[in-house]
């Protein structure tokens, strides 16, 4: 298992242990993007936006994830 996958697994476990920490969701989405898994990043971003509706940062997360994923797709980065 690669380090990126290990990081994603660790942060996913952290989200399960502390689901009220929005920073964990943001970091997990970022790790998924770094790993080239934009679908997983989008799922986490959507969950975060729904879970923290009063957080501007979490409300903006799905759009930021889409922007990064589109940029990486256009540049051929995986």
Largest sheet: none
Query: DSSP strand (E) fraction?
Result: under 5%
Give the CATH class.
Mainly Alpha
What proportion of the residues is helical, as a percent range?
over 70%
Total DSSP E strands = 0
Radius of gyration: 12 Å
CATH fold assignment: Serine Threonine Protein Phosphatase 5, Tetratricopeptide repeat
Q: What would you say the CATH architecture is?
A: Alpha Horseshoe
Q: What is the domain tally?
A: 1
C-alpha termini separation: 17 Å
H/E series, N to C? HHHH
Oligomeric status:
single chain
Give me the secondary-structure category: mainly alpha
- What is the approximate shape? flat
The poorly predicted ranges are none
Tell me the CATH superfamily: Tetratricopeptide repeat domain
Look at the structure and give the mean pLDDT: 93
Number of helices: 4
What does this structure look like?
This protein has 78 residues and is an all-alpha fold. It has a single domain, classed as Tetratricopeptide repeat domain (Serine Threonine Protein Phosphatase 5, Tetratricopeptide repeat, Alpha Horseshoe), CATH 1.25.40.10. It is built from four helices and no strands. The two termini are 17 Å apart.
